[in-house]
Write a structure and sequence with these properties.
The chain is an alpha/beta fold. The protein has 15 helices and 18 strands. It folds into two domains: 2-51 and 325-368, Urease, subunit C, domain 1 (Roll), CATH 2.30.40; 52-318, Alpha-Beta Barrel (TIM Barrel), CATH 3.20.20. The chain has helices at 81-85, 91-97, 101-117, 130-141, 156-159, 163-171, 187-200, 216-221, 235-243, 252-258, 265-270, 289-298, 304-311, 313-318, 351-358, and strands spanning 2-4, 7-16, 21-30, 33-39, 47-50, 52-58, 69-70, 77-78, 120-127, 147-152, 176-179, 204-208, 226-229, 248-250, 275-277, 280-281, 335-338, 364-368. Strand 13 (226-229), helix 9 and strand 14 (248-250) form a beta-alpha-beta unit. The longest helix is centred in the first third of the chain and has 17 residues, at 101-117. One of its GO terms (molecular function) is hydrolase activity, acting on carbon-nitrogen (but not peptide) bonds. Residues 47-343 form the Amidohydrolase-related domain.
Length: 369
């Protein structure tokens, strides 16, 4: 890697453009913009690829990273979705209620730092805690070089206001609204919340079809801008989602751990749905997107190119994050450089498959964004 004032030239195996075509040569970056991508003989085995976009997190959960999950004895939490995360009495909500703002902010910062260290430069958080929760996340984001989308969830304070007033208060600080499910609160109230978002031009996002498919129809009636999970969706559900052009974010490791099953990702892609990936609750999983890629490739059996796109380019398009797209001339640089000669990666025959199936955060040499 060589550099001069405001310019970097990086040699290696480049995953170029929308199709992630392999170009062996160099990338020239000037003042943060990709000036040139050139095919040229090089001895460098480094891998140059777009950074990750983590489309669904709950980083407030960072205050509890090791819940004891197991059978139904009193001293552990059942391996049951409602026991873990359903508001208002799930484990995470009981813990968050006892956590001070100062502690919450510091722990969220640890997860943001972890995302940056593991190749993620953009993320979306479903922020619990209402207005207070949004402000805590904004405080945690200060001086952090990462792009974010904060999807707020009303708390008791906002629920005690007229709906439009409560949602307007949240949207004065947040990017949109992110609800837990269509059957977790009164559907008429949810409809009013969604309408307030639509009128303001802000995203309305909601979990759906995670434990059961019975809430998918009601979720779709709210005209959401993004659905999360759809673990239990059947073909007719996917057709309705595709017809409405609604993107879906899947959380493979989280859904596996909570026992709700495997999302029909291959069928989603076949239906033409734009699918992104999230790590979900920090309580259950790290924010490491390399782990999500390996899981999707090896457990779901998806094509590696599609897996990488889901974890990078698709996520950026779903969250409408500028500068997080494919590696192209004229665009803002948003790339990670991995050591192709590391003990882990040395000897891989297919750059993209090696990256998806076995790369780890410790293979990263640098992140430029």
């Amino acid at each position: 890697m060589s550099s001069m004032a405001h310019e970097q030239v990086i040699y290696g195996n480049i995953l170029y453009g929308e199709d992630l075509s392999l170009v062996k040569g160099y990338v020239c970056i000037r003042d943060g913009i990709i000036h040139e991508v050139c095919e040229e003989p090089t001895s460098s085995e480094n891998i140059i690829a777009p950074c990750f976009t983590n489309c669904h997190t709950h980083i407030g959960d960072s205050v509890c990273k090791d819940p004891c999950i197991g059978p139904a004895e009193d001293f552990v939490v059942k391996r049951d979705l409602n026991s873990l995360v359903r508001p208002p009495d799930g484990l995470k909500h009981r813990i968050l209620a006892k956590t001070s703002d100062r502690e919450l902010v510091e722990y969220m910062r640890t997860s943001i730092r972890d995302m940056l260290a593991t190749g993620t430069t953009g993320f979306a958080d479903f922020r619990e805690g209402g207005y207070r929760g949004v402000l805590a996340l904004k405080d945690a984001l200060k001086a952090m070089d990462i792009d974010s989308r904060i999807f707020a969830r009303p708390d008791s304070r906002e629920y005690n206001m007229p709906v439009h007033e409560g949602i307007s208060l949240l949207l004065s600080q947040a990017d949109g609204i992110g609800m837990s499910g269509a059957h977790d609160i009164d559907l008429n109230l949810l409809t009013q919340i969604a309408d307030s978002c639509h009128k303001s031009g802000r995203p309305f996002c909601i979990h759906a079809g995670e434990k059961s498919r019975h809430d998918i129809k009601d979720a779709l009636s709210l005209q959401p801008d993004m659905l999360v999970h759809l673990t239990q969706a059947v073909q007719s559900d996917l057709k309705n989602v595709a017809d409405a052009s609604i993107p879906v974010v899947v959380c493979p490791r989280s859904n596996f751990l909570t026992g709700v099953g495997i999302a029909p990702v291959a069928e989603m892609l076949k239906a033409g749905i734009n699918v992104g990936v999230g790590t979900d609750n920090v309580m259950l999983n790290s924010v490491n997107m390399f782990s999500e890629m390996e899981f999707l490739s090896k457990v779901f059996g998806l094509e590696d190119r599609q897996v990488f796109k889901m974890c990078t380019l698709n996520g950026a398009s779903i969250l409408e994050m500028e500068g997080k797209g494919p590696l192209l001339e004229g665009d803002k640089a948003n790339l990670m450089v991995l050591d192709g000669t590391s003990n882990n990666l040395k000897g891989i025959q297919d750059v993209l498959s090696g990256l998806v199936r076995r790369a780890r955060p410790d293979d990263i040499l640098s992140i430029i964004h």
